[in-house]
Amino acid sequence: MTAYENAMAHARQTEALAQIAGRLGWDQQTVMPRGANAQRSEEMAALEDVLHARRTDPRLGDWLDAAQAPDEAGAACLRELRRAYARNAKVPARLASELARITPLAQDAWEAARHNEDVASFLPWLQKMITLRREEGQAIANGGDPYDALMEDYEPGTGSDAIATIFDRMRPRLVALREAILGADTPPALTGHFPQDAQLRLSRRMAEHFGYDFTRGRIDLAVHPFSSGSGDDVRITTRVAVDDPFNCLYSTLHEVGHAAYEQGVDRAYALSPIGQGVSMGVHESQSRIYENQLGRSRAFTGWVFGAMQQEFGALSVPDEDAFYAAVNRVTTGFIRTEADEVQYNLHIMLRFDLERALIRENLDATDLQEAWNTRFLADFGYAVDRPSHGILQDVHWSVGLFGYFPTYALGNIYAGCLFKAMQADIPDLQQGLATGDAQAATTWLRDRLQRHGALRPPVDTITHACGFAPDEGPLLEYLEGKFGALYRL
Amino acid sequence: MTAYENAMAHARQTEALAQIAGRLGWDQQTVMPRGANAQRSEEMAALEDVLHARRTDPRLGDWLDAAQAPDEAGAACLRELRRAYARNAKVPARLASELARITPLAQDAWEAARHNEDVASFLPWLQKMITLRREEGQAIANGGDPYDALMEDYEPGTGSDAIATIFDRMRPRLVALREAILGADTPPALTGHFPQDAQLRLSRRMAEHFGYDFTRGRIDLAVHPFSSGSGDDVRITTRVAVDDPFNCLYSTLHEVGHAAYEQGVDRAYALSPIGQGVSMGVHESQSRIYENQLGRSRAFTGWVFGAMQQEFGALSVPDEDAFYAAVNRVTTGFIRTEADEVQYNLHIMLRFDLERALIRENLDATDLQEAWNTRFLADFGYAVDRPSHGILQDVHWSVGLFGYFPTYALGNIYAGCLFKAMQADIPDLQQGLATGDAQAATTWLRDRLQRHGALRPPVDTITHACGFAPDEGPLLEYLEGKFGALYRL
């Protein structure tokens, strides 16, 4: 076997084992008996040890040094493998092991702190996590910027300076839009009681309309919706609030977007280094365009209005227009995961600036709460009323996910670009959506983006799909256009 | 770390990974999307490679050579590890890999052959599987008997000569009992329509009454009922036939017996080499005593009769005695898994003699069908009418499970001994069971047997629990007494 073939065979087995780890994560959050928690931790740790040993196996390094790619896909595989190997080889085993050990403890501390609104009890854990991840970033960066090094894990090839520049251009326009909307009349919300079974039935229908392949996936309930797995086993979860059906329906569409990307990758790439989504930002572009640009459009919500009347009888809003306004209602709120399309990106920008400062040692964890609250008031126009509505709301920092947040906003930006290109290519897009038919859109996304997996780096993936290089323009125009019309600004 | 500590740490991680493999098996048979089959095979193969490498790791051999046990439990752990290591080290990697490759293909061939009643199409696969497993048995036996070597995988320390001697003593008494019963009047069966939900509700109640810990397990539906996992994550499955509620109820109790053993092992042994059931035979003793000696007793079926009336309304049988007779009905039949307590062991003896002859080259696969049918007529008194009722009925041989069948009968023999000892120790056993309360019995089993896991070898485990060495006497007395009374022989 050639060095290339050896590297690919090794990577394929590693990927198969990584899929198993993902499946265990699914199991843990859906069906696992609660008494199995401690045992499962030990099982997962054993599997993570195997994965870590394979990913830092010196033989893999030798093969990658000598490997010659036979074609474009092979070159992309080597690009992905070399990046991951170089990264993993730079992290001292002691540090990787300490991070693995501290993470569940820090997460527990965060959960307790959030429950008790007690920032002080979480600060030592946060400081420890910042120190360890900074150290990891420094080891990877090798003299470069540690925050950029961490970002590479989630969004390779997009440095934080580029992100900061984009965000700085976006912020004033989003703040202005947010101010104008909150100054206008707020449309009525949808109210009522919506039984779980009917919500799940409708969300399954919507998943089917958006192309989710149930023969290679399934939908279950979980506390936090997520998508898990690649290739032929891509499972999603959703949740139900009986007084808020949009929670279930749009969580489902969001996860269907992630799952469609994984299910849509060319099967020739299965279990290879390019057999899955190329980055978190590109992944989020799929979940966001399914959920927002398509799922929350005037056309598709018109169909949802009718489908909901069938399932639930008469609704508290009288017609399709009022329903569309209810789906896209913008109000004050503190929680990122519940934010509307307009305010969501402001949440991300706040976190991005703060976490970059933390990792770069420009902000101390002890000053984080004040920095958060000051910034929140400036961007959102109202003050944080408690820690669980402020710095304690997200799990990310407690588990060391520094550098992850910007990928959410990047996903929105990419979704804006993809939607612009898609509209130009599909003249009757809205007519289809108005009948609940998303096939033209999902086929376009599959052909232009999903099937290519990680063949091209993230920005190239979007550029290839859109026919133009991505920037924040299309997203801002979309938001200003949509919400300007809705709120008659 | 000492050699002992190194060996134990290594084994603990291997066991954690083996638990993951078990969990994937559960997933595959309960919740996995059907389109994921091929991908899952590759994932499982990757994990099996990891497990095989660990189980034959030369470092483990060195540690085991040098290890000194600190106490009785440690000595038992070393006993189990050394036996497994010596076995695995003797099997050539080429042979292990060829067996892994051929097994799913042979199983597919068996499924098709059974469906088409086509023995000829399965014979080449059967011959291949016999050859490979014989070769494996010879490699392990190192000049000794290859069938005994294979049996060791499932029932260490009990050679096939001992089994043959016991079976030869049992056969005439069981054949005589079977003839007498089939010559007597057959009691009416329970008939009716029994909705799935109610069957599952009642089977869950029975599982609770028999001590199944739902905080460390769960019950799902599957085509073939099974129990899976050890320690704090022991899941069982059941199945439902709407015209035969005993299928669901007693499959559940059977699996609860297996699960209770795994859940009952001393938690100090968790993930250690003695942290699970010691052998298939001892495991089967637990499933059988829960299902038969306890679950199908006159006392407990009296409670089931009342519980079924609550769930399903009036039944087709008028009273507890008629219900007890319906539960324990003995009729002609071809299928092992559907056999009653009397005829079940005759099925096993037939398979044991034939498979031992196959492995020992005393019987050729081409003569197997005739040998099966001749023997069946002699032992059961009626002729096999088609291959799927004869040599094609069981999956075992197609997946190479030679040496496994005798553990089923051994389990029945052990259950007979345990029940005899239990009755002597618990004077009011029947009074408890008559109210649906199995706690006295399950507590006795947990204390005497389950909590010890694999601390002692199989026969010692039973001897320790019973206070006497096991033989077939108690089982035969129990069967002759129970069915003699039921059928007024």
Automatic annotation (TrEMBL), chains A, B:
User: Which transformation does this protein catalyse, written as a reaction?
Assistant: Release of a C-terminal amino acid with broad specificity, except for -Pro
Keywords linked to the UniProt accession: Carboxypeptidase, Hydrolase, Metal-binding, Metalloprotease, Protease
The protein's matches in PROSITE patterns, at most eight in alphabetical order, are given as: PEPTIDASE_M32
E.C. numbers: 3.4.17.19
Enzyme class (EC, first level): hydrolase
Molecular function (GO) terms for this protein are: carboxypeptidase activity
| SUPFAM superfamilies according to UniProt | Metalloproteases ('zincins'), catalytic domain
By sequence similarity, the record places it as follows: Belongs to the peptidase M32 family.
Q: What does this protein do?
A: Broad specificity carboxypetidase that releases amino acids sequentially from the C-terminus, including neutral, aromatic, polar and basic residues.
Q: What is this protein called?
A: Metal-dependent carboxypeptidase
